Amino acid sequence: MADLKRILLAEDNPADVELTLSALAEHNLANEVVVVKDGEQALDYLYRRGQYSMRGNGNPAVILLDIKMPKVDGLAVLKTIKEDKDLMTIPVVMLTSSREDRDLAECYNLGVNAYVVKPVNFDEFVAAVSKVGLFWGVINEPPPGSVKKR
Amino acid sequence: MWVYDAKTLRFLAVNRAAVEKYGYSREEFLAMTIKDIRPPEDVPRLMENLTNARVDFQQSGLWRHMSKTGEMFEVEIVSHSLEFDGIPSRLVLVNDVTRRRRAEEAAKEAALRYRTTLDHMLEGCQIIDRDYRYVYVNDVAARHGRTTKGDLLGHTMMEKYPGIEQSEMFHHLRRCVEQRVPHVMENEFTYPDGSKGWFQLSMEPVPEGVFILSSDITKEKRQEEELRAYREQLEQLVKQRTVQLEEVNRELEAFSYSVSHDLRAPLRHISGFVELLRKHKEISLDETARRYMDVIAGAAVHMGQLIDDLLVFSRMSRTDLLESSVDLNGLVKEVIADLAGEQRDRTVKWEVGDLPEVNGDRAMLRVVFSNLLGNALKYTRPRDIARIEVGSREDDFSTIIWVKDNGVGFDMKYKDKLFGVFQRLHSVEEFEGTGIGLATVRRIISRHGGTTWAEGAVNEGATIYCSLPENAKTIQGNQEWRT
Questions:
Q1: B272 part of contact set with chain A, CB < 8 Å
Q2: Which chain A positions have a beta carbon within 8 Å of B275's beta carbon?
Q3: Closest approach of chain A CAs to the CA of B220, in angstroms?
Q4: Which of B141, B90, B98 is nearest to B120 (CA)?
Q5: How far is the first Cα of chain B from the last one, in angstroms, to the nearest whole number?
Q6: Domains plus CATH for chain A?
């Protein structure tokens, strides 16, 4: 597998994946997304292990992380990324249903770059996710070593 | 002082002091013998004393003499031999010791009385001499030692209680004997049979050695120990309960966390996919189908609101209060600004009085005013001019704050329903809402130690009151004080 894309989306729920992709499609970013189903796969992708051992060099321009995922949760993935000097510069955006203070506090303590609560209302959801995709995937200039814009 | 004939015992010469003391004239004296100045019953002893070895100088001790008037007094006699006009005789010096003897007797009596007092005291009394020998023990002290006076008197403590030198008590006793330092202590005494008793000991240095006063406090000590055991048990129980409570709290938190995360996801999917369906090119929807979809989407949004409100309610119940001084004027201003969206295209007259500073959790009090002012705006929507008043007054024990509106009001017979969770007095078509707002207000105010109540009438507006207890009020008064 050699897919190398600008956005890494870690999300276990297929319905959420579909909604997120359709929101990102607003800015034609749906094809710029690699989807992983849990934290373990996210780390495999970043470290080029397991099924991603053959992927090309470079880091995604942004990682969209759900908090609650099977095996390794989003907080653990965030912690691993921010403690690794090769990965710590990748912008990480939490994309979650939780607006609990302790999740917010912990994510910021771990060095998250943004925290977005997924709105229940679809229009608001589309607006939020597409803005996140537009800003971090297009407007923001990612750190050196990230996948380049086409 | 006189001189008498050693053979005939006749007075040969007397001095003036003797004349004055005994009341006989010199002539009368010279006609008498030394037998005549004492009670007849003492004469045999005198004769015996005279027949005994005569030495030149003699202290012959105590004697009873009698004056002419029959007054008896005790005298100490010193005599020695001499020749008086060629006659072998003795010179006698007489010293009246009556007064001294009386004083001695009084002292003896006092000592006896003191002993008797000690004997009958309720505390144990012992006197230990400087060799730690029992020189005095009363009955109570003997009983404390589970022995008899006779068993102790004349013996040393070490003989009676081998090993006692190693005890802490003995250490203090030694200090009292050697350095004359008094000491009071509670001592657990172990009897030779291994049983134990508690005594309060007071050691006081006295001329003979040390006086020890002892009270049996075994019963008090036992009670004290029982009490301590009870207290420890109670503390243990409280600790246990606290742990259980903390566990319940944690579970509750885990529950609401999971509610917050997991219940919202399916709602998002419902509303998301309804929208996707609506936008799908290959489906043409008629009016009815579009309305159904609106209902589905609306229901999802409403349920999302319910979940959010429930979470706030539960958070207000379980998070700790962060108390500080809160300026209600500023807080109300902020909340009114936040509610700008609800005031658009409406005429709202705010009448906000001068509100006090109170002690409380600012974030929670903000939720209170958000709900109260939000409700007031909502239920005045049918009015051309909405009037909303925020006021306060102080009573003896608390600060009372109210929010009054000229809205649709409510029937007083439902006033208790107003503050219940999920309790609503209007349909969703009339006024949207989840029925959790006032329940949250009541919970927050009660966590601040206050109460909530409502007044109103149908179509005549409503007033919601909150009281905050006096101690939740600021130190505003104190600040005035300082300036």
A1: yes
A2: 122-123, 126
A3: 53
A4: B141
A5: 96
A6: 7-137 (3.40.50.2300)
Long-range contacts of A2-5 (CB under 8 A, 24+ apart): A2/A54, A2/A55, A2/A56, A3/A34, A3/A55, A4/A55, A4/A56, A4/A57, A4/A58, A4/A147, A5/A31, A5/A32, A5/A33, A5/A34, A5/A60, A5/A147
Residue A4 to residue B430: CA distance in whole angstroms: 54
Read off φ and ψ for residue B319, nearest 5 degrees: -80, 155
The pLDDT tens digits of the residues spanning A48-81 come to 998 888 888 888 999 999 998 888 889 999 999 9
The amino acid sitting at B45 is R
Nearest to A122 among B264, B265, B271 (CB): B271
- A96: nearest CA partner in chain B: B261
Largest CA distance in chain B: 175
Tell me which of B249, B253, B269 to substitute to probe the interface with A (most A C-beta atoms closer than 10 Å).
B269
Pick left, alpha or beta for residue A5 (phi over 0 → left; psi -120 to 50 → alpha; otherwise beta): beta
Spatial contact of B153 and B135, defined as CB atoms under 8 Å apart: yes
8 Å CB contact of A16 and B274: no
pTM to 2 decimal places: 0.51
Q: What is the pLDDT of residues B292-319, one digit of tens each?
A: 888 888 888 888 888 888 888 888 877 7
Q: What is the dihedral of CA B20, B24, B30, B34, to 10 degrees?
A: -90
For chain A, say whether B302 makes contact (Cβ under 8 Å): no
| DSSP element (H, E) containing B342 | helix B340-343
Confidence of residue B384 (pLDDT cuts 50, 70, 90): very high
Give B483: exposed, middle or buried? Use CB within 10 Å, 0-12, 13-18, 19+: exposed
Instruction: Name the residue among B324, B322, B366 with its Cα closest to residue B475.
Output: B324
Tokens of B164: 């006692």
Tell me how far apart the alpha carbons of residues B436 and B449 are, in angstroms, rounded to a whole number: 20
Taking an 8 Å cut-off on Cβ atoms, the answer to whether B304 and A68 are in contact is no
Give the H or E element holding residue B128: strand B124-129
Q: What are the pLDDT digits (tens) for B106-159?
A: 889 888 888 888 888 889 999 999 999 999 999 899 988 888 888 889 999 999
What is the 8-class DSSP label of residue B279? H
Of B257, B262, B272, the CB nearest to A125: B272
B107: number of CA atoms within 13 Å, CB side?
6
Distance in angstroms (rounded) separating the CA atoms of residues A114 and B343 = 32
Burial (CB count within 10 angstroms: exposed 0-12, middle 13-18, buried 19+), residue B56 = exposed
Please state, rounded to an integer, the average pLDDT across all residues of chain B.
87
For residue A146, what is the DSSP state?
B
Residue A69 near residue A61 (C-beta atoms within 8 A): no
Residue A110: predicted pLDDT: 95
Of the candidates B55, B77, B57, the one whose C-alpha atom is nearest the C-alpha of residue B65 is B77
Nearest by CB: B304 against A67, A96, A120? A120
Give which of A18, A99, A120 to mutate to test B binding, by max B Cβ within 10 Å: A120
Distances (CA, A) of B76 to B54, B79, B105: 17, 10, 17
CA distance A98 to A120: 12
Chain B residues 220-259 with a CB less than 8 Å from chain A: 257
Q: Closest chain B residue to A122 measured between Cα atoms? A: B272
| Burial class, B413, CB count within 10 angstroms (exposed 0-12 / middle 13-18 / buried 19+) | exposed
H or E segment at B183? strand B183-190
B300 neighbourhood in chain A, CB within 8 Å: 120
